[in-house]
Amino acid sequence: MAFQKIDPKTFHDNVFTRIGSDWFLLTAGNEDCCNTMTAAWGGLGFLWNKNVATVYVRKSRHTFGFMEENDIFTMSFFDPSHRDVLNYCGSKLGRDVDKIKECGLTKIMLDGGVAFEEADLVIVCKKLHHQELAPEYFTNASVEEIYAADPDYHTMYIGEILGMYRK
Predict the structure, then answer these.
(1) pLDDT for 7-23, tens place per residue?
(2) CA nearest 88: which of 67, 68, 118, 65?
C-alpha cells in the first residue's frame, strides 16, 4: 500500500500514545548515508505560525551527528507487529551495526527525508531550531533526576512539518 499525504489538521491520532507508548524511528541523513534510532520523546504542535514536531537526541547517540549535519529528519511510526524493529533499533548503536539492513527495512524518500516503507505513518520535518537542554533551566527536581546517573543531556530539535504520510 502506498503512502498518501495528509493534511496535519486532519491528523487525530493520540500523540501521547503514538510517541510515548508506541515509539517511532527518528531518522536523519540521506539515501546513501543515514542513521535511525528508536525515540519516545517528542511532540507535535504549532509554533512560529507553523505545524511543528519536536524530538530529543542525546549527544552520545550516533544519530546526533546526522541531526546536526542535515536539515531534514523523519519520524516513522509502525503498527504493533514491528515492535521487534523498534526494540532492536533502540538497543543497537548505528556506529556498530547497520540497523536498517539488520531489520530488513526498506528506505524510501519523502520530501527529501529518509523514511521506511514498512511504517504506517511518516512525518517529515525541516529543522527550524535546536538547543541543548541545560540543567540550570530545569525548574523541577524530577527532571534533573532523569539525568542523575548519566548527565548526557538531550538536544531538542524543532522541525517544521513538511509532510505527513499515512498508508
Answers:
(1) 999 999 999 999 999 99
(2) 118
